[in-house]
Design goal:
Elements lengths: L12 H11 L26 E2 L4 E3 L7 E8 L16 E9 L2 E8 L3 H9 L27 E5 L2 E5 L7 E3 L6 E4 L15 E2 L6 E6 L6 E6 L5 E7 L11 E2 L3 E6 L2 E3 L1 H7 L4 E3 L5 E7 L8 E5 L3 E11 L2 E9 L14 H7 L4 E8 L5 E5 L5 E5 L11 E6 L14 E6 L5 E5 L4 E3 L3 E4 L12 E9 L4 E8 L9 E4 L10 E5 H4 L8
Antiparallel strand pairs: 1-5, 2-32, 3-4, 3-33, 4-5, 6-7, 7-8, 8-9, 10-11, 11-12, 12-13, 14-15, 15-18, 16-17, 18-19, 20-21, 21-22, 22-23, 24-25, 25-26, 26-27, 28-30, 29-30, 30-31, 31-32
Length: about 500
């Protein structure tokens, strides 16, 4: 299959203005706000669509069967206070692939908070930049369910970064079916980046909050039934974002980037501080272990948003991910009241490896590469199994024009050698988190990168969005297919791949 050539000619100004009118159906109130996360590729769309037989440039592989889902912020109402992208209502976008064809759907995640605002006809949440209002909600702000998404127990699970209530979303029509209830669990809160083990179907999740226990860790079986949940001993409130999962262990994160509870209680603002003198602590717990079985390993100070993979190798437990040495970069002149938000969103991180010796307690850690990348994904069939490859987003630093969080290219890593391959999306073109899509019928016994990498991009010159499909073995030749989206797809957070055999279990013989 031949890759598409890189587009080097761009439309005229007149063509661009025409395409804006055709594709940029945003909320009109954004023009009253001087906030970069409400404009351009970040601007919300106002239309929910269901469109089949999308136009395809190139050729979609016949063994690409399943769906790419991506969650992200899409505010419906004008913000009550200063807007932060974490405040935007969750919106799910889905691109479905079958027999060389593609279709598209998008729907809001119908959270309780969003429905309350629809009844009121306005935004009622104070937003992440505060002040928090705990009479409004148990979180002090709106649980937007705009962060993560994965397929579990026959449905999509939509999650919020701040350990909110998980929502069940129908993977076929993207309709919200209420809270995602785990049988036998008496509470609902769950963090984004909980994990589903594709080999066992188990859900491994964690929860955190401002009151003891500051963290819990649990496991549910493939049918949504709770197996166990245990309290994890932490010295105070933390904001962990991800975990590492191997076949027999889970790695929990205690990170030195957290808020002052006295300030939050007295003034209603969550002020984050990076404590450079406090090491990262990783808590290794057996998958079905008790809280008392956690072993803590200390590492260099920093912050971790996303892990790539984790596996056992003899007496070592290895975890790959992205590490930030400074999760709160300096603000820049002229950024005004948005300075702290803009600085926090300017993500500075690089590909990194940690290894823990489960016999001696020794720790080894170090860079895999120093390029500024994040939003890292791997082949889901290799979860918990030793693998080599990860697929990251290239993020420009501030001096490279990275004033806001934006993805300018796809980077494939060989984490064993540190070698990287890169495809730049092009001037003014910005991407989404990419997922690895195994070929139909693939297993973990097949070559690790013999599949596809899929992402969504938007061109700021005409606001046209495309879904790009790459051959994972050679991303440098560019996408083998480019699917034209029927509307602009705004910037978002996380994505997942659902295999056709999981989406349509009763039709596996047809796929």
């Amino acid at each position: 299959m031949q890759p598409l050539s890189r587009m080097t000619e761009y439309p005229s100004v007149e063509q661009c203005l025409g395409r804006v009118a055709e594709f940029d159906n945003t909320q009109p109130w954004i023009y009253g706000h001087d906030n970069p996360y409400l404009h351009g590729v970040y601007a919300p769309v106002s239309t929910e669509m269901d469109v089949g037989e999308l136009q395809v440039e190139g050729e979609l592989p016949l063994d690409l069967c399943g769906a790419y889902f991506r969650n992200g912020p899409n505010p419906r109402f004008e913000p009550k206070n200063r807007y932060h992208p974490f405040d935007g209502d969750g919106m799910m976008h889905g691109v479905y692939f079958h027999q060389g064809r593609a279709r598209y759907r998008n729907r809001y995640v119908d959270t309780l908070a969003r429905n309350n605002e629809l009844r009121d006809g306005r935004s009622i949440s104070p937003g992440v930049m505060g002040p928090f209002d705990y009479e409004l909600s148990p979180f002090g702000i709106k649980d937007t369910s705009n962060t993560d998404v994965f397929f579990y127990d026959g449905s999509l699970m939509s999650l919020w970064y701040n350990a909110g209530h998980p929502y069940r979303v129908d993977a076929h029509d993207l309709g919200t079916r209420g809270y995602f209830e785990l049988q036998g669990r008496d509470k609902r809160r769950m963090s984004a980046h909980s994990k589903v083990d594709v080999h066992t179907g188990e859900l491994l999740f964690f929860d955190y909050g401002n009151e003891p226990p500051y963290m819990t860790y649990g496991v549910a079986d493939a049918s949504g039934r709770m197996l166990h949940e245990v309290a994890i001993d932490l010295p105070g409130p933390r904001l962990p974002h991800d975990i590492g999962v191997s076949r027999n262990y889970t790695v929990l994160h205690d990170l030195p980037f957290f808020h002052d509870m006295d300030i939050l209680r007295r003034h209603g603002y969550r002020v984050l501080t990076f404590h450079r003198d406090i090491p990262i602590r990783f808590g290794v717990i057996p998958r079905h272990g008790a809280g008392s079985e956690v072993r803590w390993f200390e590492c260099e100070p920093g912050y971790i948003l996303h892990t790539s993979n984790c596996w056992e190798e003899d007496e070592w437990l290895v975890m790959d991910g992205c590490r930030s040495t400074n999760p709160m970069p300096d603000s820049q002149p002229g950024e005004g009241e948005l300075a702290s938000m803009l600085a926090y969103m300017r993500l500075e991180a690089n590909n990194y490896r940690w290894a823990f010796n489960l016999r001696t307690g020794e720790v080894r850690e170090g860079d895999i590469d120093d390029l500024n990348t994040e939003f890292n994904k791997t082949n889901p069939l290799y979860m918990g199994i030793k693998g080599r490859y990860a697929y990251h987003q290239r993020i420009p630093l501030h001096h490279e024009g990275g004033y806001t969080l934006r993805f300018t290219g796809l980077v494939k890593y060989d984490n064993e050698t540190g070698r990287r391959w890169q495809w730049d999306y092009g001037p003014g073109v910005f991407g989404s988190e990419a997922v690895y899509a195994p070929r139909r019928g693939a297993t973990a016994k097949d070559r690790e990168d013999d599949g596809y990498v899929i992402t969504l991009v938007t061109d700021s010159k005409d606001w046209q969005s495309h879904c790009l499909v790459f051959d994972a073995t050679d991303i440098e030749v560019g996408p083998v297919a480019r699917v034209c989206m029927p509307q602009r797809v705004p910037f978002g957070f996380h994505a997942t791949w659902a295999r056709g055999e999981d989406l349509y279990p009763g039709r596996r013989h047809e796929l």
